[in-house]
Amino acid sequence: MCCHQISEEDLQNRERMPLYMDLIQGMQFFDPHVHMTSRTTDDYQAMADAGVVALIEPAFWLGQPRTGIDTFRDYYSSLIGWERFRSSQFGIKHYCTIGLNSREANNEALAEQVMEILPLFIYKEGVVGVGEIGFDDQTAAEEKYYRLQLELAKEAGLPVQIHTPHRDKKRGTTRSMDIALEHGLDPAMVIVDHNNEETVKEVLDRGFWAAFTIYPFTKMGNERMVELVRQYGPERIMVNSAADWGISDPLAVPKTAALMVQRGIAKEDIHKVVYQNALDAFAQSGQIDVADFTTVKAIDQSQRFEGNTVLRGGQAPRVDKDSVFIR
Ligand SMILES: [Zn+2]
């Protein structure tokens, strides 16, 4: 028998495969936390095909500690430069938040230098917040730079994107909010990220935005997310992928929307948690114009950014000015 023969079991498996793209036809998504620097062009393509029209890339830890200020400078520059350009080549509007991540706040000598250059970046076009900042190990140094950056955000009138710790999450989340209030921040300007069932109620009760990261295999799977929206409703809740260099799924937002459709969550509620709430929260920066979500679709991959393109030798550019989805 030929090895390409499809078995009965294969056929059944194929029928059970979630046709998530069918469930979300025509829907639009805004992923407010995804580290595209760590992802490939395949990811951009797949996100665009699934209906992701805009995203926010928070500044974060790259997996290996930086040893000098220049690598921070270049990284921030790439978030507002090259990565934004790369995203545009797939028809997705790219925004970012700029900040010193909690992990690297523990290198105080370097953190001091980072604080000095942050004001050069947070006022740039397309920077929709200060982030992701907050606690990792909940050290004194982390607290110090978290507080300094809250002041920076307040002064700039920018939203804050808070990374809550994965260890001792409940206490770290409460403490993050306490400190934000202590500095006089309006909870409506603060997006508390990486929530779970233990933290969500307090975050919503205190008037903050509650963001949820859908992680494959661990923590918040999208089954649990559907239950949370069923329990708490769609107000001030948003879903993100936080996809990065680790095991993660850049399609987490559209896939979660599909599961919500399948589980009978109302379309208007889904729209809020996968698009509108993130837009409303970060548009407070004054840096988001939804008209750009459409104009960025006028893709011309022959464009260049400082002489560089997303194309490799011999590839034909995709010039697809009129279509909403890249085919
Ligand atoms: Zn992140």
From TrEMBL:
Descriptive protein name = TatD DNase family protein
Q: Which domain of life is it from?
A: Bacteria
Which SUPFAM superfamilies does the record match to this protein? Answer: Metallo-dependent hydrolases
Signal peptide residue numbers: none
An example Gene Ontology molecular-function term: hydrolase activity, acting on ester bonds
- Tell me the InterPro entries matching this sequence: Metal_Hydrolase, TatD-like, UCP005295
